[in-house]
Amino acid sequence: MDxxxxxxxxxxxARTFLAGPHRLLIDGKWVEARSGKTFETFDPGTGRLxxxxxxxxxxxxxxxxxxxxRAFETGPWPKLSPAERTRVLWKLADLMEAHCEELAEIETLxxxxxxxxxxxxxxxxxxxxxxxxxxxxxxxxxxTIQVSAPGDYHVYTLREPVxxxxxxxxxxxxxxxxxxxxxxxxxxxxxxxxxxxEQTPLSALRLGQxxxxxxxxxxxxxxxxxxxxxxxxxxxxxxxxxxxxxxSTEVGRLIVxxxxxxxxxxxxxxxxKSPAIVFPDADMDVAIPGTASAIFYTTGQCCTAGSRLxxxxxxxxxxxxxxxxxxxxxxIGHGFDPDANLGPxxxxxxxxxxxxxxxxxxxxxxxxxxxxxxxxxxGWFVEPTILAKTTPAMSVxxxxxxxxxxxxxxxxxxxxxxxxxxxxxxxxxxxxxxWTRDLAIAHKMAKRLKAGNVGINNHNFADxxxxxxxxxxxGWGRELGYESIRLYTEVKAVAATL
Length: 498
Known about the structure:
By secondary structure, the protein is α/β, with parallel strands linked by helices. It has two domains: 280 residues, Aldehyde Dehydrogenase, Chain A, domain 1 (3-Layer(aba) Sandwich), CATH 3.40.605.10; 189 residues, Aldehyde Dehydrogenase, Chain A, domain 2 (3-Layer(aba) Sandwich), CATH 3.40.309.10. A seven-stranded mixed beta sheet has the order 14-17-18-13-12-20-21, sandwiched between helices. A six-stranded mixed beta sheet has the order 9-8-7-10-11-23, sandwiched between helices.
């Protein structure tokens, strides 16, 4: 059996964590899977084994759900005041801040993204989301309702935690999305069973250790690592009150079907095929690097990636050449290479998927402007790729590739409705961006686009206070901001006869 190989740039704390056992967190204890099974996790930058992790199945999920139910119904968690919940969440944020470098190293090793992104974007965002969201614990309120029924009544509403929550997290932002989910759930007073993606379990497990150190009662957060069987067991479990899933639209449909048994609440953040629309008056010093970043950030493994680039015919050649120039500047390499700003894709399976789409695009008539090939034989790297002469019927335009591949298409229409109709085509509606100096055009287009998040002269913008989610097949519900608290609460109406 292979011996795990750790990267030379890892610090002592990360090495100590990675050398230890990687078990399930159930009811405050780190335990092996009931089956005794483990699975391997790899460094995408080298393809080498870095750890073996406990493989949960339905039996382990049963134990985790039972622990979460006890913690929600009879443990100390429901007795904590809102201010006390805020304090323990802030303690977790403080611990993450103290271990920021270690968490970033673990995230980069397991996911592949450049270390400086993990260090300056992902982990700080987790800390900010925890601190922002924790503040809502003392501000969750109901309303006094004036009713018209005959008689004398005192009528009001209560907003209460939904209960036991299953949360299934993707591999592209493993730590970040885990925190996006646990922060509002815990703020609202729920208990959690967290399942990280099988490709990237490690940062969630280190988060679990910090959760214990922060003083969360046993059973409030349980972490089960494993494959789809564990996620399916969470989604179908009759004692789970809500499931929150981030991942592909295909799996999202399976989650919905599994949740139907007890009609549990479901929120979904799913796929995207986001348009970026460049008008002829756009500031090219902003639009060109901005639209390049929209697709090449995190190697295109981003649900909001600007993978359809609509460019006005007047500036089409200039923008296309400019984005190709930005792609040429990118240094492809391992996440710990200090000069690299484009890391690997997550797995060989994903590499084959991306290069397969590029090949299909060529077959259908697309022109490869730049990129299009695998890089090297070690690790899972692919060139940043621009496809021109693409049409709406092509698979590369219709389907989510989830890699650094953008389809460029010219337009010459001045009718905003027709431009929006092209941008809105397809089943997704997660994000979009508009590049123009004309504020009237910008805001009119923003209104017409069927997307949950619209950027004006920016793309991939996120903030703890800003709701995030999609239209159409990009999902149900919103994460971040106060909207995330709504996802984890129920409204109770109370009518008292006086």
